[in-house]
Every structure is written in structure tokens, then in C-alpha cells.
Amino acid sequence: FSPSVLGTREHWDAAYERELQTFQDIGDTGEIWFGEESMVRIIRWLEKHKVPLDSSVLDIGTGNGVLLVELAKSGYVNLTGIDYSPSAIQLSEKVREKEGMSNIKLKVEDFLAPSAELSGFDICIDKGTFDAVSLDPSDALGKRRLYVASLGRVLKPEGFFLITSCNWTREELLNEFREGFEILEELPTPKFCFGGRIGNSVTALVFQRK
Hints:
There is one protein chain. Helices cover 39% and strands 26% of the residues. Helix 1 packs parallel to helix 4 (86-99). A hairpin with a 2-residue loop joins strand 7 (191-194) and strand 8 (197-200). It has seven helices and nine strands. It has 210 residues and is of the alpha/beta class. It has one domain: Vaccinia Virus protein VP39 (Rossmann fold), CATH 3.40.50. One of its GO terms (molecular function) is protein-lysine N-methyltransferase activity. Keywords: Cytoplasm, Methyltransferase, Nucleus, S-adenosyl-L-methionine, Transferase.
């Protein structure tokens, strides 16, 4: 991919500072990445596979934390969200407070250099964070490798990794996560038609750590 400001911390700090101010002004939580259906898709998969409600869940690049709130409303009780942008965590804390979900844990963490205490998760979820890492103007390839290594450290063996991407195809994601992970399922996502060919604008996959 071409390098982009979407891959820089400065961009996300500025974006979440704006969203934080908007929330304080009018109570708007901001954009839901990939729309509400992306959250429903994840929660349905967890419910379909009878993932226990006390499973430890990590939201990688939580942003405004809305996914965690929806998981909490669905009964999940062991929820953690991380983001490398302090403004994002401030926003998600305010959203958590507004929704009365005090049991959601939130931390400023860079997933590419996770702290030692960030480990042992049953479920890791990514909606767009790997996409952003892939657009980093400085050594995107190296940072993608760091991401995969970090995922291997924080996710338990046989734990599940649910990723939603608009930059990567199924085959490309299988290649990126080929070491240490195996594909379990591709989740249905909206399709589009262009030039007589049908494709997916969004890819959603479930991996299991070996």
C-alpha cells in the first residue's frame, strides 16, 4: 500500500482530540469503523460459538470503545481496550462512563510494543488497526511483522483472533498471519459488483492461535 497519514500516530491523536471535543460538546461518540453491522457480526460469531461470557477479550485499537460497550451489553464481563492514542482512551473512558459500563478496562498501549501485563487473552479483536499499521510511512512491513509477533504474545494458545479489514483480501490476510495462526472461518460481509465482477469491500476472518 502507499504510505498514508492514516498510518501515523499524529493523525489519530488529532482525530480523537476532535472526536473527544465533539463528545464533550454534543455527546456524539463519533464514527463506528465499518458500521454497526461489523459489531453485530462479531457478537453473533461469539454467541454462535458459545464463547463463555467471562472470556478475556482484548479490543486492539479500541478508538471510541463502542465495540466494548456493545460486548458488555451482550453480557461479556472481562473486556479490555487499548489504543496508542491517549485522546482515544480519554474518549472511550467518557463513552464508558456515559453508558455506565465501569467494568470495561481501558489502557494507553502501543500494540507493537505491548507491556508484559498485556497477555493471556482468550479473544483478540481488530477492526481497522492492522489496516492502519499497514499504511505507516515508516517501515510498514516491519510493523506488520511486529503486529503478528505481538498477537502471538498476548493471545492464548487456541485463542481466537477476529479481524475486519478494508485493505486486505482473504488470501493476503492468510499470508500475513500464516505463522502461528490458522484460519477458522470467513464471516459474511457486504459485497459489491464492478465491471461484472463481484467482490467484498470488507474482509472479516476468524483465526485461531496454534
